Amino acid sequence: MKAVILAGGSGTRLYPVTQSINKHLLPIYNKPMIYYPLSLVMLLKIKDVLFVVNPEDKPSFEKLFKDGSHLGMNVKYVLQQKPNGLAEGLILAEDFIKNDNICYMLGDNIFFGHDIVKIMEEAKKDVEKNGGAYVFGYSVKDPERFGVVEFDENGNVLSIEEKPKKPKSNYAVVGMYFYDKEAINIAKNIKPSDRGELEITSVNEEYLKKGKLKVKLLGRGFAWFDAGTHDSFLEAGEFVATIEKRTGLMVGCIEEIAYRNGWIDKEQLLELAKPLKKTEYGKYLIEIAQS
């Protein structure tokens, strides 16, 4: 399985800050926002990652991640010329994905929970074994802002709808999707929505029509932030700060994950920490290497 992380878009909900910087590079507490979805991909042991980025932002992402080899990974970039919808990222990733299955992440979504990696591994294995699509739902107060999934009394999916004016449930589909290789062809054949975008909900709808869509609900033990608004951005930062201060462990530390995965050794970790040794982040990496 390969991973695609969507990090383009215009970030209009975070204006005026995003007039000068891509929102995915803004700090959620002590790390760029984009570190958090990337860290989950790494925890799934996925080494091949494609970032979908705006043309003007590519140099910044390359400065941050290079080709990924310093983390023992293979990182690529593809340009999204205009924000034409979340599903366009799948089309742009075609040459990278080839015949692989896909872990598709939105760069502004942040997840936390004791079993989040276990649940993602289950989704990954399910798609690898059975094909289809596997997505996640989360109860929200404002479902009209999201793609909304409707269930029957037995938990079967009845419908999935993008930003409905009258939501049929409070369950939003979050920005973490697992697809088989057919997702690219499906994305190519969906029609733009009324707002002129290729919606990821339309892709999920097609899988539902084929009887190949699974939706797992994330319950009370999980936190999910769509950090694309000022309030949720602030809440996500405060949440990460609280967790890290209470536990002494970092959330979304990509160098630590690469080390614990065995992708880099102790010397390589210390080399990455060296230019950061005066910062709390660098000190943390040194502690990890010496523990």
UniProtKB/TrEMBL annotation:
Q: Which CDD domains match?
A: G1P_TT_short
- Could you tell me the EC number(s) of this protein? 2.7.7.24
Q: Which GO terms describe its molecular function?
A: glucose-1-phosphate thymidylyltransferase activity; metal ion binding
Reactions that this protein is recorded to catalyse: dTTP + alpha-D-glucose 1-phosphate + H(+) = dTDP-alpha-D-glucose + diphosphate
Q: Which residues form the Nucleotidyl transferase domain?
A: 2-241
Q: Which cofactor does it need?
A: Mg(2+)
Read off the InterPro entries from this record.
G1P_thy_trans_s, NTP_transferase_dom, Nucleotide-diphossugar_trans
Top-tier EC class: transferase
- This protein is called Glucose-1-phosphate thymidylyltransferase
Recorded superkingdom: Bacteria
Record function comment = Catalyzes the formation of dTDP-glucose, from dTTP and glucose 1-phosphate, as well as its pyrophosphorolysis.
Q: Which PANTHER family match?
A: GLUCOSE-1-PHOSPHATE THYMIDYLYLTRANSFERASE, GLUCOSE-1-PHOSPHATE THYMIDYLYLTRANSFERASE 1
Q: Which family does it belong to?
A: Belongs to the glucose-1-phosphate thymidylyltransferase family.
The UniProt keyword set, sorted, is: Magnesium, Metal-binding, Nucleotidyltransferase, Transferase
Pfam families, alphabetized: NTP_transferase (PF00483)
The taxonomy runs: Bacteria, Pseudomonadati, Aquificota, Aquificia, Aquificales
